[in-house]
Amino acid sequence: MNIGEIARRAGVSRSTVSYVLSGKRQVSEAIRERVMRVVEESGYRPSATARALAHGSTRAFGLVIPPTSEHLNVEQLRFVGAVAEAAAAHDHDVLLSPSGEAHESAFDRMVGERRVDGVIVMETMLHDSRVARLIEEGLPFVTIGRTGSEEAHSWIDLDYAGLVTEAVTRLAALGHERFALINRPQWLLDREYGPAFRALDAFEKAVAALGARGVAVCAEDAEESGAEVTRRLLGTVVPPPTAIVTVNERALDGIVAALRAMRVVVPRDLSLLAVTSEEHARAHEPQIGGADVPSTEMGRGAVEALLRRVTRPEEPLAHVLLSPPFLPRGTEGPAPASA
Q1: Radius of gyration (C-alpha) of the chain in whole angstroms
Q2: What is the pLDDT at residue 231?
Q3: Does residue 190 sit in the same domain as residue 256?
């Protein structure tokens, strides 16, 4: 069913049907009732394109997700779900657009053809071409993470710098003097992915401020890589670290498995803190101490911030930096006496 068929059944022109549905022009009450009766009987619902033409709104948001080849982790899926639920609560659909060079044309179509009212961008880089394009096009958007020009756009971010600094400080208070950071993959760091870049910068500054020893390594987003990096840290670094901090959730299982295989008892022999989901942290024994990633809160907040940009563009940009509290769960303890 389309507008042409509605017009034929109601005995009016296509433009008259458009006027009735959009309310842009007045038509007689008799004609309006005739058109609406046909619409109701047919169950007709205008397409997103038709709604956009009629009302100047698509009632849809774009969500730019990480490359699908990488597979979304549990927290990313939870974030996407929160975005979808929050958008639906405001009568908006969500159009997913994978990022990466192979999908640039999809992003270009979504933005250039105004298929959405606004966009939420995940996995933001410090220098992000997607952000530059959205600014150029004048399309409302919110990023998850910050670029190097954070004052120029709306964003919601996790305070990775503050959390890593707090982790090192907490461990130093327990007598630790040798630290390791297991970061996200090197290719993300090379591309200046915000969380990885800020975590490394904060780690190096915190260790230097303490006059302590620190080694930072990257692990792929995989359990096997986390295990391999952990074995290398404890097997080749002399003297080895007594405390590990990680922001790589996907590598965490491998880190724990490697420590267990090497008969390293946590926290007696080594302390471990992570920025990860509560569900993931509690899945281990002992449960991993650290800061829980508030994915649901971030997803809902992103939709609310984007709605404000769309409906009230004159209001100040949203700059939301979340810093969840560190929760001790049994993996942080005093530095080993032999250290």
Answers
A1: 26
A2: 98
A3: yes
Tokens in use for 292?
A: 């829980």
Provide the pLDDT confidence category of residue 22 given band limits of 50, 70 and 90: low
With respect to residue 39, please indicate whether it lies within any of the assigned structural domains.
yes
Q: Please count the helices (runs of H) and the strands (runs of E) in the chain.
A: 14, 12
Task: Outline where 102-222 has alpha helix (H).
Answer: 104-112, 129-137, 160-173, 186-190, 194-210
Distance, in Å, from the CA atom of 98 to the CA atom of 63, rounded to the nearest integer, reads: 8
| 33 or 67, which is more confident | 33
Same domain, 175 and 287: yes
Pair (179, 281) in one structural domain: yes
Instruction: Write out the E strands in the chain.
Output: 60-65, 93-98, 118-121, 141-144, 154-158, 178-183, 213-218, 243-246, 271-276, 289-292, 319-322, 326-327
Report if residue 240 sits inside a domain: yes
pLDDT at 305 over 70: yes
- Phi first, then psi: what are they for 244, rounded to 5°? -120, 135
Residues 40 and 189 grouped into a single domain: no
The three-point CA angle 122-84-94 to 5° equals 75
Segment 261-274, tens digit of pLDDT: 999 999 999 999 99
Beta-strand pair 289-292/326-327: antiparallel
Give me the number of domains the chain comprises.
3
pLDDT one-digit tens code per residue, 172-203: 999 999 999 999 999 999 999 999 999 999 99
Question: Is 102 contained in some domain?
Answer: yes
| Section 310-335 average pLDDT | 95
Higher pLDDT, 108 or 213: 213
Specify the residue for token string 């053809």: 113
Do residues 170 and 286 both lie within one domain?
Answer: yes
**What range does the domain containing 39 cover?**
3-45
